[in-house]
Amino acid sequence: MEDINITVVCDNNPYKDGLETKWGFSCLIAGPEKTILFDTGPGGSLLSNMEKLAIETSGIDAVVLSHIHPDHTGGMESFLEKNADVAVYLPRSFPTKFKHNIREYGAKVVEVEQAIEICKNVYSGGQFGKWIKEQSLIIHTERGLIVITGCAHPGIVNMVKAAKDLMKEDIILVMGGFHLEWAGKGKIEKIISSFKQLGVRYVGPCHCTGEKARSLFEEHFSRNYVNIGAGKIITLADLQ
Ligand SMILES: [Zn+2]
Ligand SMILES: [Zn+2]
Question: 141 near 4, Cβ under 8 Å?
Fold first, then answer.
């Protein structure tokens, strides 16, 4: 596989000047045989940030929606208005109306239950969780697995552990929302030590991870902490 290139299109944390930083998350994965948009950010930000980052909607083959919350699905319709020639991977539990609406645009809906391959080296971790169902994106690289989460509502450690069990490979990077905004220091440190036990090498917590957790991750991972915000680009060369 050629080099992986992950561009954070939407995040409420700023990184590159001039991009919108409303609450939400979206990133683009280029390099594998399919170019994949993971989540679509809040309504209104996706297309304008894509334009500022010189990302063409027409170059995208698949959209993966982590979970139903509007800060991850808000840009879906505006995207489909530009490019409906995509397969949209979503947790099977999504409302029928939502799936129907996507099909109305002419896009293909892929309902995810178990972990599945999206294209060579890229997988959905499968539908997780009891209340808010969510899927992660797993990229298999020559340096290990990259796991990307939207909000990690089912628990970030559960989702990372499942990815490792599924792929039976080491994890080079975990990035995305870890949902620790309201977590106490003790809980966050327990999660950090679970990450270390699981052999996670790099972390890029953003979106709903919260400032306290982000700084604790930075403290514990030091140079292996990836500072993520809107406009950040990550390649394998950043993960040495
Ligand atoms: Zn969110
Ligand atoms: Zn959420």
Answer: yes
